[in-house]
Amino acid sequence: MAASSNHSFDIVSEVNEVELHNAIQQARHEVAVRYDFKGTKAGIEYDKKNRCLTLTADHQGQLEAVVMVLKEKMLKRGVDHRALKRGKIEEASHDTVREVVTFHRGIEADDARKIVKEIKAMGLKVQAQIMDEKVRVTGKKIDDLQAVIAHLRKNGPEYPLQFENFT
């Protein structure tokens, strides 16, 4: 490669939909058959169209147990549980509690601006630009780009980031 060519990568936040679906199915199955959930209202409903889950349980402690099952299954399928965006816990009918959980997709505008600002503050010879729900980083030195990735892995937002299209 010529010394003057630029290298780049995209910073994105996405979830592997297939593995997420498999993790949800496994979590639903475990909640359905586990002894400590027998005879309770504990459950997971998956609304694929709206990309959200409705978790139900008899009480908040049990709801947390359902969330733990879900996170465990996501981990086993290689899906980062930080992609979960938990909603507020609400009282539901028949003395149960309910929580709607969504999934993080794309880098939010405020976070994209913070990422670009952080990259500039590093003082490396790289450019970062916001493109819809991702940030593209370009630079001449691969080492500089790798330094950006390492920095964002430690100091990025609460949700998972992926680094792709490395050229």
UniProtKB/TrEMBL annotation:
The keyword rRNA-binding does not apply. SUPFAM superfamilies: YajQ-like. Pfam families: YajQ. It comes from the Bacteria. One of its GO terms (cellular component) is cytosol. One of its GO terms (molecular function) is nucleotide binding. Transmembrane segments: none annotated. InterPro entries: UPF0234-like_C, UPF0234_N, YajQ-like_sf, YajQ/Smlt4090-like. Nucleotide-binding protein. Belongs to the YajQ family. This is Nucleotide-binding protein Isop_3477.
